[in-house]
Design goal:
Helix content: over 70%
Distance between the termini: 87 Å
Radius of gyration: 41 Å
Number of helices: 3
Oligomer: single chain
Number of strands: 0
Strand content: under 5%
Shape: elongated
Length: 141
């Protein structure tokens, strides 16, 4: 038992080295695969970040455009409303020839129209939002 065969030792060392080389190669392939996977994930995250930034810029541009158009529409509506008030005032003044009565009539007319529009706005705002959506969903069950 004390005798060792040199040929057996060489075979054992050769097998051990072969197994070590195979494990090293396997580890290297695994490590490279992890590196490639990580690089791919990083590239996807960068692409997603760029897409989100582009969409945010586009959304901001759309919001600014919508605000500009809304402002122009308000200005046009004010001009048209002013012209209508002047026209109504001229017609009413033609029949009454009283500036005080004409201005009182326009004031009452504009207040009534404003209250009417405000009531419609309140009813419309009740339909907007999460609670309104949830009540519609629960009501349809």
């Amino acid at each position: 038992m004390g005798m060792e065969n040199p040929q057996q030792n060489d075979t054992f060392n050769t097998q051990s080295n072969d197994e070590f080389d195979a494990q090293a190669a396997s580890f290297k392939k695994t490590y490279e695969s992890i590196e490639v996977s990580f690089a791919s994930k990083v590239a996807r995250l960068i692409a997603s970040k760029n897409l989100i930034a582009a969409e945010a810029k586009l959304s901001l541009s759309a919001i600014l455009l919508a605000l500009a158009i809304s402002l122009i529409l308000v200005i046009v509506a004010v001009i048209i409303w002013t012209l209508l008030n002047v026209g109504i005032a001229l017609i009413f003044y033609h029949f009454t020839t009283s500036i005080g009565l004409t201005l009182t009539f326009l004031f009452i007319l504009n207040i009534c129209l404003g209250l009417y529009l405000f009531s419609h706005l309140k009813n419309t705002l009740k339909l907007i939002g999460f609670p309104a959506t949830m009540s519609e969903i629960e009501g349809s069950k």
